[in-house]
From TrEMBL:
It is found in: Secreted, Extracellular space. This is VWA1 protein. The lineage of its organism: Eukaryota, Metazoa, Chordata, Craniata, Vertebrata. It comes from Aegithalos caudatus. The keyword Signal applies. InterPro entries: ECM_Regulatory_Proteins, FN3_dom, FN3_sf, Ig-like_fold. Keywords: Glycoprotein, Repeat, Secreted, Signal. Residues 1-89, 96-184 form the Fibronectin type-III domain.
Length: 188
């Protein structure tokens, strides 16, 4: 059955069973916003394909999708599905599979990484400081990146790390994690 995966605010991936091959035909793909049938787009897809990403879509829009196998051997009925794109900016963005992960911990550094990376995020702000305490440092990270290394830390110390996604619209969402540095080696 034709279905969609990896749905975002502007794209989704269509996946379908192998019905045709390169030799037996091609697919006609028709898709458009359900509310505006006149804006339907059509494209041809090789018979060898079983998936395709549709992009440049409108957010929060339900698309009607029809995949018509144009076979010179068998008749296959058109496969249809409906897909609704996500809101342009998910207020629940951090409720998706979001994590702040701490890795590669050493006596004076550790790596912080986070997911997902969203197009709607302009930059990330990483705040970190030892617990307990109120000395906080701030690091700005480009919105295309999803990890950074925090250095010059104190050994054997618990740090509170807060990653804030700063959206292009000005909204912010934060998530915190605790991390511990390793004990320092004597003589280092």
């Amino acid at each position: 059955r034709l279905h969609a995966t990896d749905v975002t605010s502007s794209s989704f991936r269509l996946v379908w069973p192998q019905l045709l091959s390169l030799e037996t035909g091609y697919y006609s793909l028709e898709y458009g916003p359900r509310a505006e049938p006149a804006r339907k787009r059509t494209q041809q897809v090789s018979g060898a394909h079983t998936s395709l990403v549709l992009s440049d879509l409108a957010p929060e829009t339900t698309y009607e999708v029809a995949l018509i196998p144009e076979s010179n051997v068998h008749y296959f009925p058109p496969q249809t599905t409906r897909v609704t794109t996500l809101a342009a900016e998910l207020n629940m963005a951090w409720a998706h599979p979001v994590q702040v992960l701490i890795s590669e911990s050493g006596p004076d550094s550790f790596q912080v990484s986070w997911a997902p990376v969203l197009d709607s995020v302009a930059s990330y702000q990483v705040l970190y400081g030892p617990l307990p305490g109120n000395s906080v440092k701030v690091l700005q990270v480009d919105g295309r990146h999803n990890s950074t290394v925090l250095e010059h830390l104190a050994p054997n110390t618990t740090y509170l790390v807060t990653v804030t996604a700063i959206y292009r619209s000005g909204k912010e969402k934060s998530l915190s994690a605790k991390a511990c540095t390793q004990e320092g080696e004597p003589g280092q």
